[in-house]
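Model: You mentioned two targets. I'll fold them one after the other.
Researcher: Yes, keep them separate.
Model: Target one:
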Amino acid sequence: VNMQTENNSNTPVQVERDQGVGLVRLNRAQQLNALNLEMRQAIATAFLALSGDPAIRVIVVTGGEKVFAAGADLRLLVDKSSQEVAELNLPSYWHPVASCEKPVIAAVNGYCLGAGSELMQMCDIVVADTSARIGQPEAKVGIMPGAGGTQRLARTVGKPIASLMLMCGEALTGERAYQLGLVSELAEGGQALNRALELARKVTFMPPRAMHAIKRALRQGSDLPLQEALQLEQDEFQQLFDTTDQAEGMTAFLEKRKPTFTGN
């Protein structure tokens, strides 16, 4: 895939765009992509830019070949009081990722720990390779996750596995994470990004409004009682019948041709 790189090699995050796919590449390999404030800000900025770019249909986030992200940069936190941590307002940096309307795909190799694992869990689809090691070892440094690492994890893999990871600091292999449903697809060693980009390309041919509606239904519905969630789904389903993409999709199917979706 021939991506256009928009920044130089020492920026903490590189953003690349190619035919509807935006790629966010974490780029502090020397520090194992540890998430300091500069890195967090760069991720937020990249997501805001790609979210606001109408040409981008899907976002892929990845780290390096040996590490996705090994967690928070502890130098940022080691001497802080609870009030000082509150003033850092760490959730604000994650908001552009967690609330992104567009589909987001994570490509994970190697270490994916702490805040790195939380970032992965904010994504919609996760492709990991066999080298992946996914964990929430925050307790080992005297704290606990603070960006979804207890809540999203328990909702995905259940309390027994989440407790094992959180209380014992046990990391999951890519294969185990795949078996447990924390990872969407397991790729061969070194192939996570290629596979994530293949899946992203599929998304670029999908109708954007349906993608947004599916994402909203999944995000909001999972915490609602079933009857309310089904009503939410019904509303989203019906609204898509006011889109030209619905007419195009169904007409193309009946005419045995490929649809061309415009996002209208």
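Model: Target two:
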Amino acid sequence: MKLVLTPGMGIGPEVTARALAPLVDQGAFTLMGSGPDIQAALDAAGVPWTHRSNACNDTGVFVVDTSDAEEPAPVAAIRRAAQAVLDGDSDAMVTGPIHKAQLRQQGFQFMGHTDMLGEVCGGKPVMAFTGGVMRVALVTTHLPIDAVQSAITPEAVEHTVRTAYSALVRDLGIDEPKLLVCGLNPHAGEDGEIGHTEREIIGPVVNRLRGEGMNVLGPICAEDAFMTAAKGEVDLVVAMYHDQGLVPLKIVDFGRSVNWTLGLPIIRTSVDHGTADKIVGTGQADPSSMGAAIKLAMDVVRRRAAD
């Protein structure tokens, strides 16, 4: 098992080090990013490590310092890590949090990891979350609210549903997953009284996919969809926009959920939290989400290898 990790910024290095502590004998873990920050975190967690210039196949923890790159170290790390997986030098990548506003001041041109990985790796990435009671996939991600409606197209909805459905089958082993697709408007449009996106865009896509045999229902009002998900009665909810999906998910599953990028030619998982700069070095950072992200990546690698 070969994983490449980009601890990122803020609490990223420390939660990565603490999550890796019980796993060091289970594979080769190459950490890329700001070498001094990563090394200090590993030392503090009591994790032995070795310096390397690239990804490594030996069991243990290895540090690749990207501080001398032409772009910020955390960004260069993401690029090199993705390329390592594309080249077959690693089986999957796991990412820690980055502070996007700080990085944009240094020339970072993306809204986040997902957008960057879509450009680096190709494909049409879908942001999804799993690991707790709920699973969620998003049709749109980091858009202002007034731009969401125009981005809800039949193609976007269909791509998200198909990609999520395939990932549940292939990577999680769910043979006939059940998906609920949210409406965009309150009460899923109230039969056209509160908008037409549901009747004109979402509904026809869902009906077509159901006709193909997929167990997908919608459009459903978001509160009903997430109440059903919280009871464990559905395999995944497709949300139309960021806060529609992530507010209920994080209320219920924060800390155990994993940001899982679908639709890429590589396996990528990540934490479900930000950099939490105010608690860096205080010992308060919870490594649970990073631990879950690492374990999910390992599980997906194993499942694909067994196919």
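Researcher: Noted. Anything on target two?
Model: The first strand starts at residue 2 and ends at 6.
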